[in-house]
Structure formats: C-alpha cells, structure tokens
Amino acid sequence: MSFRATVVVPNWNGEKLLSTCLGSLREQSFEGFEVVVVDNGSTDGSLELVARDFPKVRVLLLGENLGFSAAVNAGIKASNCEYVALLNNDTEVHPKWLEALVGAANARPQAGLFASKMVDFDDRRVLDGAGDVLRRSGLPYRLGHGEPDRGQYDRAAFVFSACAGAALYRHSMLDDIGLFDEDFFANCEDGDLGFRAQLAGYRCLFVPESVVYHMGSATFGKRSPTATRLGTQNSLCMLVKNLPAPLVPAFIPFFVAGQFSRLVVTASTHTLRAHLEGLAGALRLLPLMLEKRREIQKNRRVPVEYVRRLLRESNEVADASLRRRLAYLFKARLAS
After folding, report:
1. Is the pLDDT at 221 greater than 60, yes or no?
2. Which of 25, 41, 80, 102 would be 64's cystine partner, CB 3.0–4.6 Å?
3. Measured on CA atoms in the order 221, 225, 228, 231, is the torsion positive or negative?
4. Which residues make Cβ contacts (< 8 Å) with residue 178, sequence separation at least 6?
5. CA 107 to chain centre
6. What is the DSSP letter of 40?
7. Which tens digits make up the pLDDT trace of 172-181?
8. Is 195 within 8 Å of 238 (Cβ atoms)?
9. Domain boundaries, the chain
10. What is the pTM of this model?
11. Where are the alpha helices (DSSP H) in 41-188?
12. Residue (of 48, 47, 58) closest to 1 by Cα position
C-alpha cells in the first residue's frame, strides 16, 4: 500500500504509555499512513507489547538511548512519504487528528510545518499547547499552556513553531533545511527546527482541529534536573544558531532580563545546579553552534525585517497567553 504520511513515535521505556498512543492511531479517520516506533534502547516490555498488540507497526531499534532528536531523525529517514508526523508516546490522539493536519497541509502550500492543539490528558478542559512561540527574552513558550479551553484557539493561525510532541512536517522541507539537531539530544530541538524553517521561508500553521491529549513530561518528569539542564543549554544554542546579527543589539536587554528570571525560577524550584550545568553546556557547545550558524545565516531567504516582525508578534501572543493563564490560576486560588 502507498502511504501519504508516516507517523513517527519515539519511545524509551514507554510500555505503560504505548497502548493508549498506538491504540488511538488505529482509530484515525485518515487511512493513508504508516506508524513507525523508534526505540531508544528500552529495557522494559515496550518491544514485546508492540509485537504482540500492534503487529502492523514498524519498529526501528537504535539499541541505546540516543535522545529524542536522533530517534525522530531515524524515523524521518526511514520514511518515503510526502508528510512526516511526530507523536510523543504519552499521548492519545483524536480520531481526526491526522486528517486535520494533512488537510491543512493540502490547503496551505506556503506552510512547511503544522502544530496540533494539545490538551491536558487528565483535565481536558485545560490546554497544554496551541503552537510554540519565542518570547522577547529568548525563552521558548508553549502558547495556551495552562489556559482553560474557552475557544480562544479555535481558529487556524500562523505561529512561530510546532511542538514536536504532535506535529506534521513536509518531507520536502526537511530535505531542504535539514533534520533535528542531534547535538540538542532533547528539548528545544523543535524550536530550533522551526526557527530554521522560518529563516528559509517556511511558515508554521496551528491547526485547531488536530487535537491531541498529552500527559506531559512522561520521560524526564516535570522540572527534573535533566529537563532543566537541557532546556537551558538548548534554548541558548537555538539563539546562537538562528538569531540574525542585526537583531542582537535590541535583543540583549530582554535576554539578560530573561536569564535573570530563569535564575530566580530555578533557585526557587531547587534546579539551580541543573540550570548552571546547562549554561556550562551551552558554553562548551558554542564553537560548534557558531559553525552551524554560519551555514544557517548564509542560507537565510527572508529579510531581517520579517524575522523582527515574527519575533515581535510571537512575544505579543505569548504575553497575552501568559496573562490569561495567570488570571486563571489567581481565580482558582481565590475559589479554593
């Protein structure tokens, strides 16, 4: 059978998660797709579960934990389809999830990547994300995260990037700009790819009909030292690689303020050491990121003014989302 899309599910010791994820893919209204599970050296019963309960799923074995980026890259390279969708193993997808993404891709040829509407798995009245944005401070932000779902994200819109936990990519775009940066291992690799896509002239569309229920932080855990270290390291690497030089002077004051707030937050959540390790990691990777930067900036196809406007609009919608989230949390605390 000829497929139009490949759904790549990276997995590392996700035996307790895969039945829900793969089971929901069986119920998709869109039929022309294959599923590839890329296993990062699991030591639980993941592989036995897939072989027993999902025999049509193709499995790629990496043998060891090479990280999210390496896993999804292996899945992308194994696909010959027009579209590649990435899906975390800690998800359940709505039956029309893939149909909505492919339909949007057919209708919007100017877009190269497509973000899903992510909803909290346990409380489905609350959003987990409606596309990714980049704040003026240089810190990534998941649009809509923690907001009650009141229809504020029910219209398709162009956003900065897509969370790779549930997204669709044109294979031709990935062939053009390159795959996920494996030096990131995990965390911010999707923002980096989205930034590179924007610099090359590909837009990212948020598709509200492509609904995914997301558990979140199932691999590393919320606010874990590993997630904090990689988040700090990779968010800095992303900026070094992708931010055009003419934008740097105006960006620096907000960046410094953002880094100070990051210090305060990590100190208050007992992850300061991991944050400092992330800063050290970014410094260690600086020469490599500068080398990658030269190639990315040389191949930039959009004017600096486009990037300036993109980042300004990204920051505006992030601030609005954050205000709604804080207002919701404040009202919830008063009610309790």
Report:
1. no
2. 41
3. negative
4. 196
5. 22
6. S
7. 999 999 999 9
8. yes
9. 1-336
10. 0.95
11. 46-53, 68-77, 97-107, 171-177
12. 58
